[in-house]
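Before going further, it is useful to explain how the protein records used in this thesis are read. An example of such a record is reproduced below.

***
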Amino acid sequence: MKDTWMKKGLVVSVILLFLGVTVAPSINFTVVKASNDNDLVEVTTQACGIKGFGDATVKLTRQQYQNLEQYLVDFRSRLNKTSTREEAVPIFKEAVVELNKYGLLPKGMSVKQAQRLATGPYQNTKLLKCLEKLSNKSENLSLLEGNAFCLIYGEAESYTYFQGPVSKVIFYVACILDYILIKHTHLLNSLIGVGLIFLELFLFYFSMLLFLLSDSLRNFPYIGGIIYYGDLTQTSNKEHHYSPAEGSIWTIGAFGIRHWNGSFYGNLPFTLTIQRTTYYPGVNGFTGLRLSSDSSEIYFGSALRVKIGSEIPT
């Protein structure tokens, strides 16, 4: 009888030993994982202006994240030293390669696809050259107050919203409306040399619309996304509360280098209103990559039209 109890006790001890061996590592693993998670920074990359690719979310160590942040600081510094689009394109492509090292390309997207997305899948080199020559010879195109067919890099601090991709039809109408608004505004300010000014502006928009209808875009139902800067919220008491976007934007395109810092609003046509909030579009036809974490958000790529202002849109 005593031997029987001893055998049973031995069996129970062996079972408990196995349970201890199997359970203990699981508990330790959970504790270690939780501890490590506190030291990780979650970064998400999104493909903008295109469909078919999922967001990529990666957890980086603090050191990896600091290295990535430093690279982006150097990236912006190098862009500030460029004077032509040809100088900026390799920097954009290199940034894609760097993001790939961290696993930060959108799901299903290769390095070449991401590079093409960021440098402009719709950009037409010949048309860009024509627009650059036109803008260099004409001071009147400064009325556009922005840029076109450009590379863009931005740092968003607040009140910056992304939408897309959008239909080409919407962009056609936006171009026409943008032209009409510029024409109307200038007529109120001056009647001198109106014919020449409007001819040059018409040539610009006609070139843009002609490009959108060309073979390079025939198979694309969408034309990138929209970035909104700032918003207007109407309270229940019908009070208006304006909130400008905070951050910085750098562009290089048909009208040279143009950039904005601090507080600003989007100045393109077609505001977006959802419930009691109106959003102001500042970039049309955006294709590129958007990186966000708890502490920062940056985006870079190409855009067909950029128009930003410090004043509240009317």
Remarks:
- Confidence is low (pLDDT under 50) at residues 1-35, 182-197, 213-221.
- Residues 41-127+143-165+223-309 form one domain.
- The first strand starts at residue 40 and ends at 48.
